[in-house]
Task: structure prediction
Amino acid sequence: MINFKVEGAIFDIDDTLLDNKSSNPETALHERARLVAVHEIGKRHSIQKLIELSIQDNSNAFLNAPVHTLEAAVWEIFLMTGVADSRAINSTHPLLKEIVTIKDKLYKDILLHEGEEVPGAVAFVRALAISGVDKLAIASTAIRRDIDIFLMKTGLKPLFPEYRIKSKESTTHPKPNPEIFNIAFISLNILEQMRGQVCAFEDDPRGVMAAKSAGLFTCAITTRFSKDFLLSREAPPDLVAESFQEFAEYFDIKDAFNSFNKPEIGSNYRANRDASGL
Result:
């Protein structure tokens, strides 16, 4: 049980609220779009090693990237295939820019048709809000377009005012740098001395490190990484759960969570999404 008054909450998107289906590199949403983009550029420029990049190597590139961005994952691919020989990411590299453009276009269609919440995520956010934790923010390295699509699809958009949605475009230093969590915290308009009473929800060790460096109480969900792995990192989370149902118990909002976590509620969200044209 959380033993302090929660003043606010900041959420990552991918693999925290949005189910990227990352347990399988072959079906993971971001990984699929990135791999198609890499293969396409390999064919366009006759780079055999990019054409032959495997599903597993594509997945490993993101996991091994020093920072939590698409560009860093693609640069890891360049390093493993010999396209680049310096670990310093060159954001102006023409092949990198081409891959990012193609991947972002492909991912939009995948997200629109296949994007779903991590089970229980929507119910948990809504339960927090009605329990009095209504200062909510987003801190994600996803591009703003994709965050907006997800929030609209799930009906969560009204809970996150525009000025509290911090995306890739909001920062110059990606996770594990704490910048994005710092600016998300500032958007909540909560006293500085209450940082430790604001909960950050993450799934990735780089995001956990960023949130902890920002002085936030950090909660991790095991959508991509195991509990043991997360707790063994240099900056382990303060709390780890395997599901949002478990988080609801920790935060003592189980009844509110259960009231939202019903099939008919999800059907209403899908109806709202379809009516909005998403």
In short: Residues 231 and 237 are 7 Å apart (CA to CA). Residues 94-114 form the longest helix (21 residues).
